[in-house]
Specification:
The complex is a heterodimer of chains A (about 200) and B (about 200). Chain A is built from 6 helices and 4 strands. Chain A has about 200 residues and is of the alpha+beta class. By secondary structure, chain B is mainly α. The longest helix of chain B has 25 residues. Classes of the chains: A alpha+beta (about 200), B mainly alpha (about 200). At the A-B interface, α1, α2, α3 and α4 of A face α2, α3, α6, α7 and α9 of B.
Chain lengths: ~200, ~200
């Protein structure tokens, strides 16, 4: 059996006989091909139901927790993303709580206090008295807005209201716009912001 | 059979399995439809009954999914899949003691085959047997003794190329070509009882 004959035999066995091959080699290989087909059909008498097998497999995989779960790598990334997000939230919340803890006790404060006078501010490092009917509500509003804008704010109680010292670095135009909208204050050319509001009760 | 496309598709399915979630579902579906029938046929050739073969197909796919992240690309994916399929069968034989589970190298297989050959007797054909029946009986005898070789010849018959067959039997392409050539010699011996029919036909 030489290599060419081997190849002719293999070609005929695969159902692609070479027209120039030895006819006897082709004939024997073709007979064997038919025998293998019949043997295969007999082996596979109970025909394989691929879809039924697939459903059975998926059922088992779901039961064993192998289906519908993210891969371990994805789980790893997601778990750490959640941990980092939690840490950032906790840190931010902690800062806010700390700042509020430093405030004088403000009872019965409601948001939406008067802030009309504050909107008239448009200068840097000034000390502006603001007279409102409810100094506590206004102070609370300024504090919450300052915290949102990540500005430092120091609050001290006075006999007739609160002193609010606000300082920070305004770094982008969004914050600047918010600053204008909320407090009516523009930052300096350097971006530094420092002003003091004296919230006092109206007579 | 377009083996290259098949392999690419298997890669894509396997990647989806590794990604998990809904993609895993799609990947399993695709890979199962591509390989399950081949695994089953291999198990049947190895002498397993239909029920056991079906169970081991399931086991093989569960193991493929379970260990999908251990595949590091050192070997072709198809060879890795077939290794798992084969290991599942060996585990079954080990559990049931139905057959010694051996991972034989080429020398081991040759020794086993020589031993089988020494015990083999070629039966005379029954009276009034047709040529086709004689060849079929010869192949069935051959498959009982040399299940691996019979399976490989069935893969050749189905038109699979050497690379695919090599992955299936965990050999190099060169060793696979030699294995196929040797298989031809072996099957010819089993068809000797049919020679009278062959020459008469």
């Amino acid at each position: 059996m030489n290599k060419d004959e081997d190849q002719d035999w293999l070609d005929a066995l695969a159902g692609k006989p070479n027209a120039y091959a030895d006819q006897e080699v082709t004939r024997r290989a073709t007979l064997l091909r038919q025998a293998i087909q019949r043997h295969g059909a007999a082996l596979n008498e109970n025909e394989f139901d691929t879809e039924a097998g697939l459903q059975k497999l998926k059922f088992r995989m779901r039961r064993e927790g192998l289906m519908g779960t993210e891969s371990s790598f994805n789980n790893f990334v997601k778990r750490w993303a959640a941990i980092i997000a939690s840490l950032i939230s906790a840190f931010t919340f902690g800062i806010a709580v700390t700042r509020f803890a430093m405030l004088p006790t403000i009872e019965g404060v409601k948001s939406g206090g008067e802030i009309v006078e504050i909107k008239n501010l448009n200068s840097f490092a000034q000390k502006v008295p603001v007279y409102v009917s409810d100094p506590t509500a206004t102070a609370q509003l300024v504090i919450s807005e300052a915290i949102k804008l990540r500005l430092n704010i120091t609050v001290s109680a006075t006999p007739d209201g609160y002193n609010l010292l606000v300082e920070g670095l305004v770094s982008n135009s969004i914050e600047q716009n918010e600053m204008k909208n909320v407090l009516g204050i523009s930052k300096s050319a350097s971006g530094n912001l420092l002003f003091q509001i004296q919230v006092k009760a109206k007579d | 059979m377009p083996i290259t496309d098949s392999t690419m598709d298997a890669q894509r399915s396997f990647t989806m399995i590794r990604q998990g979630g809904k993609l895993r579902d799609q990947g399993v579906t695709s890979l199962y439809r591509r390989y399950a029938a081949h695994f089953r046929k291999f198990y049947l050739y190895q002498g397993l009954n239909v029920a056991d073969a079906d169970d081991i197909v399931q086991e093989a796919f569960v193991n493929i999914v379970r260990h999908c992240n251990t595949y590091n690309g050192d070997s072709p994916l198809e060879a890795w899949l077939w290794r798992i399929a084969r290991n599942c069968m060996n585990d079954h034989f080990r559990r049931t003691k139905a057959r010694p589970a051996e991972n034989l190298d080429d020398d081991g297989w040759d020794a086993l085959e020589q031993e089988s050959e020494a015990m083999r007797t070629v039966d005379a054909p029954p009276a009034k047997e047709s040529l086709e029946d004689c060849v079929e009986r010869g192949f069935a005898e051959f498959a009982k003794k040399f299940s691996e070789r019979a399976h490989v010849l069935s893969l050749v018959m189905e038109g699979f190329d050497t690379a695919h067959i090599a992955a299936t039997i965990q050999r190099t392409p060169g060793a696979t070509r030699e294995f196929i050539s040797q298989s031809r010699k072996r099957i010819e011996e089993f068809l000797l009882p049919c020679r009278d029919y062959l020459s008469a036909a």
